[in-house]
UniProtKB/TrEMBL annotation:
Keywords: DNA-binding, Sigma factor, Transcription, Transcription regulation
Protein name as annotated: RNA polymerase sigma factor 70 region 4 type 2 domain-containing protein
Disordered: region residues: 1-33
Listed transmembrane segments: none
Limits of the RNA polymerase sigma factor 70 region 4 type domain: 49-100
């Protein structure tokens, strides 16, 4: 009896063949990539303005956490260190701030 060595077996997922434009219709079709319409751009600007207004209404301590974490994209520990908070305190303030923004915008939870 011979035993099959699992490392010598061919695994198609380990080294998949490279995609070629002829093999994948998404790589050849540019009709799926359209520019946003003027209406979509206006709506996204209005949404961004509403979110900015909701963030501006937050108390300063919550606003600073949201700004550093969600707007500027800093990591949680970096935000906590920059504001002189513990990580649990930063999480609590961020949760309260996000909840207040959702309520201001009327987003269902």
């Amino acid at each position: 009896m011979h035993k099959l060595n699992p490392t010598s077996a061919v695994n198609p997922f380990r080294h998949p063949p490279p995609l070629t434009p002829s093999a994948d219709p998404w790589l050849t079709s540019t009709s799926n990539w359209s520019a946003p319409s003027a209406e979509d751009e206006v709506l996204s600007r209005l949404e961004a303005q509403a979110v900015a207004a909701a963030i501006a209404q937050l108390p300063p301590d919550q606003r600073s956490v949201v700004d550093l974490r969600d707007v500027q994209g800093y990591s949680g520990p970096m935000v906590a260190k920059a504001l002189g908070l513990t990580v649990p305190a930063r999480k609590s303030r961020l949760h309260r701030a996000r909840t207040a923004v959702r309520e201001t915008l009327g987003v269902p939870t």
